[in-house]
């Protein structure tokens, strides 16, 4: 038995798609199944071939030992136990008392999560049980399990070409009942190889839906400007795919522009950007308490306004940021004029408002919360009166475009702004603002708007989140930056520590891609 090659579950370095007649599961069984060793002495090639074929075919009786050879007796035991669970799930054996299909699937997935060295064994068991299985219902169950396995766990480098070949053959046979699900499994495996598979096991409700043949979940994406985008996501949809779909719908189909948008998962007012290669289901909870929103995070590609949704989304995001203090504005005479123009454009952006002057109440709504106490409503009304006498009213779409163009000229446009309450550097007066864009982190004085510190992102060496130091305290971030010759460290405390940390990570990801 020691002559049987052992399988190692090392990380994959290549994704093979074999051609020709090589790499069939029969070839794999002949080389690696423990039973194949005892057949080596059988006379005649056809007998050997027949026996190898039996090894990778459905069996009605549970196996007494693992299909692959393990020197560890515990793994052998877990493998034989798993085969019984698989047979119960597929309906080839009766279930244990009070055991249902969802529990069977969980047991199998949990085993794979805990024992990486059993990935190949579980793959081989499922492939064996869906091959030449006379019961169609049982076959469908097996393929449903393969659908989950391929999206969660990778086979080892050794099994990978054989598993890929098996899926390729199954998906290219249009007469089979499972060629569609085999295609899905192929796609899952490719994604798993590229992005690393889903992190969290599915909730029971997701497995139940899959067993009922519902492979997609309805999801509403909240877009800026109050637009709701309704879509359906599959078990292994990654953020990148959904971003592409949304961007194409709003006329931003070029890859470099799609890269500038990010999906955020929001729960209990805490926002977290989702990296483009992450699986959406890893963020969604069973109780629908997570909201997914879209934001533009990077502003490298020039804007274009031929699509109404595109214009509305950009206007909606900038308007919200402007009114809620996410774009820093300094209080000055010039700023007062700017606020007046932006209030007028907001008024014209509403339908049917081209011939009326905004009321005092409306003007308050059009003014950023941070400036409402420092700008006199009367001065603003006088300024607007003058604008109305000297300017031609604009149609809503043109007013929105002009508003966007005005915003883009503001000094802190393009930065994600965070309100920071404590900083380790006592030369920085607090509270202050930290801004992050595609190139740098800046520290801005909260009253004078003077930039007191600039940290280029390329100088950022390391970053980590910090837990609150006391009950009711604020979480923080520690930044290590500078050169090897002159390393620097700074920590900051802010309620949005996690959001800021993950935003910097996403920006670094996206700017690396760009370079």
From TrEMBL:
Keywords on record: Actin-binding, Cytoplasm, Repeat
Record-annotated MyTH4 domain positions: 58-211
Record-level Gene Ontology MF annotations: actin binding
Stored SUPFAM superfamilies: Second domain of FERM
Subcellular location(s) per record: Cytoplasm
FERM domain boundaries: 217-515
Database matches in InterPro entries: FERM_2, FERM_central, FERM_domain, MyTH4_dom, MyTH4_dom_sf, Unconventional_Myosin_ATPase
Pfam families: FERM_M, MyTH4
Gene Ontology CC terms: cytoplasm; cytoskeleton
SMART domains assigned: MyTH4
Gene3D superfamilies noted in UniProt: MyTH4 domain, Phosphatidylinositol 3-kinase Catalytic Subunit, Chain A, domain 1
Family indicated by similarity: Belongs to the TRAFAC class myosin-kinesin ATPase superfamily. Myosin family.
Annotated protein name in UniProt: Unconventional myosin-XV
């Amino acid at each position: 038995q020691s002559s049987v090659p052992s399988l190692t579950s090392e990380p994959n370095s290549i994704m093979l798609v074999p051609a020709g007649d090589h790499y069939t599961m029969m070839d794999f069984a002949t080389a690696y199944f423990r039973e194949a060793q005892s057949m080596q002495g059988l006379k005649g090639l056809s007998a050997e071939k027949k026996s190898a074929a039996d090894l990778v075919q459905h069996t009605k009786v549970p196996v007494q030992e693992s299909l692959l050879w393990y020197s560890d007796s515990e793994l052998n035991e877990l493998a034989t136990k798993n085969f019984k669970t698989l047979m119960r799930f597929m309906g080839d054996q009766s279930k244990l008392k009070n055991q249902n299909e969802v529990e069977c699937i969980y047991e199998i997935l949990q085993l794979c999560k805990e024992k990486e060295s059993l990935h190949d064994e579980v793959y081989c068991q499922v492939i064996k049980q869906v091959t030449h299985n006379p019961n169609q219902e049982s076959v469908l169950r097996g393929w449903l399990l393969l659908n989950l396995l391929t999206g969660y766990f990778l086979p080892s480098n050794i099994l990978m070409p054989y598993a890929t070949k098996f899926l390729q053959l199954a998906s290219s046979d249009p007469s089979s009942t499972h060629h569609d699900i085999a295609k899905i499994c192929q796609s899952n495996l490719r994604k798993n190889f590229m992005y690393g598979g889903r992190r969290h096991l599915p909730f029971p409700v997701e497995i139940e839906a899959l067993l009922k043949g519902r492979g997609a979940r309805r999801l509403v994406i909240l877009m800026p400007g109050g637009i709701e985008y309704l879509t359906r996501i599959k078990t292994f949809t990654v953020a990148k795919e959904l971003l592409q779909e949304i961007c194409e719908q709003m006329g931003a189909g070029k890859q470099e522009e799609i890269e500038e948008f990010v999906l955020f998962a929001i729960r209990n007012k805490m926002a977290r950007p989702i990296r483009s290669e992450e699986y959406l289901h890893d963020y969604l909870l069973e109780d629908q308490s997570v909201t997914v929103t879209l934001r533009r995070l990077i502003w490298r590609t020039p804007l274009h306004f031929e699509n109404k949704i595109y214009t509305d989304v950009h206007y909606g995001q900038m308007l919200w940021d402007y009114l809620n203090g996410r774009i820093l504005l300094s209080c000055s005479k010039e700023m007062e004029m700017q606020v007046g123009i932006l209030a007028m454009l907001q008024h014209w952006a509403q339908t049917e408002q081209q011939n009326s002057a905004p009321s005092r109440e409306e003007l308050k709504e059009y003014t950023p919360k941070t400036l409402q106490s420092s700008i006199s409503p009367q001065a603003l009304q006088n300024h607007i009166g003058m604008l109305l006498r000297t300017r031609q009213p604009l149609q809503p779409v043109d007013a929105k475009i002009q508003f966007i163009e005005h915003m883009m000229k503001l000094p802190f446009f393009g930065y994600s702004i965070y309100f920071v309450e404590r900083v380790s550097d006592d030369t920085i007066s607090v509270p202050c603002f930290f801004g992050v864009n595609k190139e740098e982190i800046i520290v801005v004085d909260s009253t004078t708007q003077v930039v007191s510190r600039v940290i280029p992102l390329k100088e950022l060496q390391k970053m980590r989140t910090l837990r609150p130091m006391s009950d009711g305290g604020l979480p923080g971030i520690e930044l290590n930056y500078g050169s090897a010759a002159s390393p620097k460290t700074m920590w900051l405390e802010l309620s949005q520590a996690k959001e800021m940390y993950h935003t910097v990570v996403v920006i670094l990801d996206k700017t690396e891609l760009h370079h």
